[in-house]
Amino acid sequence: MRRAMELAELGRGWTKTNPVVGAVLVKEDRIIGEGYHKKFGGLHAEREALADCRSRGEDPAGADLYVTLEPCCHYGKTPPCTQAVIEAGISHVFVGAEDINPLVAGAGIRQLREQGILVTEGVLQEECEYQNRVFFHYIQTKLPYVRMKYAMTLDGKIASASGKSQWITGEAAREQVHRMRHEMTGIMVGAGTVIADDPMLNCRLPQTKDPVRIVCDTTLRIPLKSRIVQTAEEQNTIIATCCQDEAKIREYQKYGCRIIVTEHADGKVDLKELMRQLGADGIESVLLEGGAMLNWSALEAGIVNEVYAYVAPKLFGGADAKSPVAGIGVDYPDDAYCLVSQRVQQVGEDILIAGELKNK
C-alpha cells in the first residue's frame, strides 16, 4: 500500500477535481503491475495497473490488488474500475480509504464482494485519507481547500523594515513552493502584492502546469500594465472585486481577465462568496500567497484549511517590519487560531512547519 501511495503522488497536480490514486498488483509475492491516475480524463489507477501487468506478459487472474482509494463503480470519463477488476479475475482487493463521492461511497466495495472478490478495507486508512484531504474536502463542501503559505524569519518578519522580501528562504524551499503551485488549482494574492512585487504567480519548474491566478482587488486598482494583467490570455486569471464600474471592468476583460464581483465584507471582497464561486467553477484548491492583511481576512472568514510556514534562520528586526498576519488580531491567547496534525520538515537551510487549522 505504501508503494501505491508513492505512485499516487506522481499524479499530483494533474487530476483536477479527481483524487490522486495508486494501485499495485501482487501475485505469488511479486509485483506484476503498477499504475496511478495520471491525469483528469485518463485511465484510473486500477486500469493503468492492469495494462502495465499485461504489458509485462503477466496474467492478473488470481492476483491481489492494492489500491489507495475504493474502486469506482460508475461511468464518468472512463468506465467503472470495478468492472475491470472483476473481468481480470482479481481474487483479493486491499483498499486504503473509502471513496466518499456519493457516486461511489462504499458501492464499489459492495459490488466487488457481490462478485465473490475478497475485500480488505482500511489498510493505512488515515494516511490514504490524508493523501486525498483536498479531494475529500471539495467533494463534501464544494469549496476549495485553502492552504495559507508564507515565509518568515526567526523573529517573525516577512519583509525587512524597508519592505524588501526577496529572498527570505533558500532555493530548496522556493522550489518546494513552486511544486505546490503546480499541485494546487489556484493561487491567490491581494492587490497590494501585485502592486508591490509585480509577480507572475506561475510555476517555474519543468513539466509542470501554472495555477489559475486569483487577485483580490476590492476597487480594481492593480495596474493594467502589471504582468498579471498583460499575460492573462496566456495564464487563466481571475480578479475578485467589489467594483461595479462596468467601464473599468471591461478594461481588464480586454486583456483576458475574468472578473468576479462580490458584496463587501468589512469593506473588502467577500472571501466566503468568492470561495463558493471558485468551487462552482471546479477550482478545488487554492494556495494563498497573500500579504499580512489578506492572510488575516482569510483566517477571519474561516476559509483557511491548512498553514505552511517556512522559517528561515535569519533575524530582520525592525518594530515596523511586517509579520505574516496583520489585522486586529485576537484578544486573548486562548482565542488563537491553532494548528493540528502538525509536522516539521527541514527544507534546505529552512524549516517548514505545517498543519491543518483547527475549527474554532
From TrEMBL:
GO biological process, one term: riboflavin biosynthetic process
Record-annotated CMP/dCMP-type deaminase domain positions: 1-120
UniProt keyword Oxidoreductase, yes or no: yes
Highest taxon listed in the record's lineage: Bacteria
The enzyme's E.C. designation: 3.5.4.26, 1.1.1.193
Gene3D superfamilies: Cytidine Deaminase, domain 2, Dihydrofolate Reductase, subunit A
Any one Gene Ontology molecular-function term assigned to this protein's record: NADP binding
Pathway: Cofactor biosynthesis; riboflavin biosynthesis; 5-amino-6-(D-ribitylamino)uracil from GTP: step 3/4; Cofactor biosynthesis; riboflavin biosynthesis; 5-amino-6-(D-ribitylamino)uracil from GTP: step 2/4
Name this polypeptide is given: Riboflavin biosynthesis protein RibD
Organism, as annotated: Roseburia intestinalis L1-82
Gene that this sequence comes from: ribD_1
